[in-house]
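User: Could you go from structure to sequence for me? I need the amino acid at each position, not a summary. Structure tokens:
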């Protein structure tokens, strides 16, 4: 039996996926398992570490039911997963309490203190990344202040994908992406003692695992992990980058041109929104202390600047839910969701532009890009009694596109072309509004599982099928890009160009009011 498959594992916050690819990057089959999030008071968001591993192993077993002789055919497994968060293990490799997820908000006050005393700005200069409550640095600081006994029990602080890699191989490591933007220096990709000192975590440096460059090496699947997953003992296992750069890489965020990398961006619009571009050298890298990540890529001298906002298609979900409530109140049944979304897209495309201004901050834990504010909330403004469902729906879609532009603007100049993936890539209305509001052509990636594909590339490189990541792009990435571009609407572009500064101005002005509203309501909602 030929070893003709690579498995990409992508352990997301809500779903764990295992995807089988052939050696040219064609997707063969996928299996998935829900991943449970445990929410609690005061911003708690956790996962049971042992359950996450067990669910990952079960997902690989499900994949074997879909792919004949999967174990014998698997040449390697590559692992990515949700970024940020804190997954502590002791010296024996056992979890020290539940994992703190990137959704966990308990570190908010610690991050606010670092911003207030100026340390956050100095940290951003070195890591290339603005501190936010999702990051392991703030969470370790919170644990040190509130649960020091947990840190005393821990031997290693991992991230989600690192934990799965450890369970598969017994190797404690993290990728250069997460290791650098959390505790390192984006200039050299190594841990930075001054960052740890500024954080007040110098005494916890022993928790940091070795840093690996994805695609540079692999470990072997242990006997215990083989029994749990159904794969063969000794199967090579590759630690990929965290899910964000893996997804942007798989979606087309790195593009070769005749004179180096092309100036393209990649946006992933799912429940949340992720936006970024890659650059060779440091000329375009201008870190901000306000928001945004600088991430090392497994490509020499290439880094990715990334901004993420908390709610993208969540806003469309809210709109559909609102429509469902109205229908229920009126005694009518809504059509199936897919049919409803098709009709909603048509409604948005036919509606007049800019009938209201919408800020898409519907996430209950606030916003983190292009600003960090746990109290930011959505608003619909500037409308009158003539606003109907079509105009409101268009305003919601426009708000998601404005939020995308706001992120790109914070990262620097808007790239020459935007590659789009995620749920929004299937929406003709969002594609068109993104192109018109960004003023750039939009190209869709038809790659279904960009994160799994982006990390599986690392295995293909590690095993020598390609000399480097860039050599794999034509078959693994470019072949999945649509040949047609969605162009900006020349009639609407000038209007959106004028509206964007107003969108930003209203966003800044509304945030103090949102914070006051939340604080005022809180005693009455407890």
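Assistant: Here is the amino acid at each position, in order:
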């Amino acid at each position: 039996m030929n070893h003709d498959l690579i498995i990409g594992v992508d352990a997301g916050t809500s779903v764990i996926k295992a995807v089988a690819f052939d050696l040219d990057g064609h997707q063969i089959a996928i299996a998935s398992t829900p991943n449970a999030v445990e929410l609690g008071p005061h911003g708690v968001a956790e996962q049971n570490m042992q359950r996450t591993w067990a669910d990952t192993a079960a997902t690989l077993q499900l994949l074997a039911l879909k792919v004949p002789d999967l174990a014998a055919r698997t040449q390697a497994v590559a692992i990515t997963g949700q970024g940020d968060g804190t997954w502590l293990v002791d010296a024996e490799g056992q979890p020290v309490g539940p994992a703190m997820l990137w959704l966990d908000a308990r570190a908010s006050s610690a991050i606010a203190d670092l911003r207030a005393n100026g340390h956050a700005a100095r940290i951003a200069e070195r890591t290339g990344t603005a501190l936010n409550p999702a990051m392991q640095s703030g969470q370790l600081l919170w644990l040190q202040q509130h649960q020091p006994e947990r840190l005393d029990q821990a031997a290693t602080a991992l991230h989600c994908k690192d934990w799965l890699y450890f369970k598969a191989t017994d190797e404690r490591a993290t990728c250069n992406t997460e290791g650098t933007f959390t505790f390192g220096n984006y200039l050299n990709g190594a841990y930075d003692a001054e960052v740890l000192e500024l954080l007040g975590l110098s005494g916890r440096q022993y928790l940091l695992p070795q840093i690996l460059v994805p695609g540079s090496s692999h470990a072997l699947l242990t006997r215990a992990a083989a029994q749990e997953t159904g794969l063969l003992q000794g199967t090579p296992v590759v630690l990929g980058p965290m899910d964000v750069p893996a997804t942007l890489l798989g979606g087309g965020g790195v593009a070769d041109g005749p004179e180096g990398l092309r100036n393209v961006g990649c946006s992933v619009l799912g429940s949340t929104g992720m936006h970024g571009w890659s650059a060779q050298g440091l000329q375009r890298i201008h870190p901000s202390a306000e928001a945004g990540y600088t991430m090392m890529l497994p490509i020499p001298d290439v880094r990715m600047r990334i901004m993420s906002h908390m709610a993208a298609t969540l806003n469309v979900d809210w709109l559909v839910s609102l429509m469902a409530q109205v229908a229920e109140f009126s005694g009518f049944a809504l059509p199936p969701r897919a049919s409803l979304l098709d009709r909603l897209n048509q409604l948005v495309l036919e509606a007049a532009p800019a009938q209201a201004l919408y800020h898409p901050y519907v996430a209950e834990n606030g916003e983190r890009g292009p600003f960090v504010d746990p109290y930011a909330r959505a608003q619909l403004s500037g409308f009158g009694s003539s606003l109907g469902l079509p105009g409101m729906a268009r305003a919601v879609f426009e708000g998601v596109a404005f939020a995308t532009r706001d992120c790109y603007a914070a990262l620097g100049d808007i790239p020459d072309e935007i590659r789009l993936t995620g749920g929004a890539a299937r929406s003709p209305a969002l594609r068109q509004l993104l192109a018109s509001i960004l003023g750039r052509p939009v190209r869709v990636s038809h790659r279904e599982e960009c994160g799994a594909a982006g990390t599986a590339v690392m295995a293909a490189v590690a095993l020598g099928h390609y000399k480097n990541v860039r050599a794999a792009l034509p078959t693994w990435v470019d072949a999945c890009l649509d040949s047609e571009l969605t162009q900006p609407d020349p009639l609407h572009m000038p209007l959106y160009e004028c509206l964007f500064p107003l969108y930003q101005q209203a966003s800044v002005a509304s945030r103090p009011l949102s914070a006051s509203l939340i604080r005022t309501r809180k005693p009455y909602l407890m």
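One structural detail worth keeping in mind: The chain has three domains: 5-245, 249-311+411-480, 313-408+494-525.
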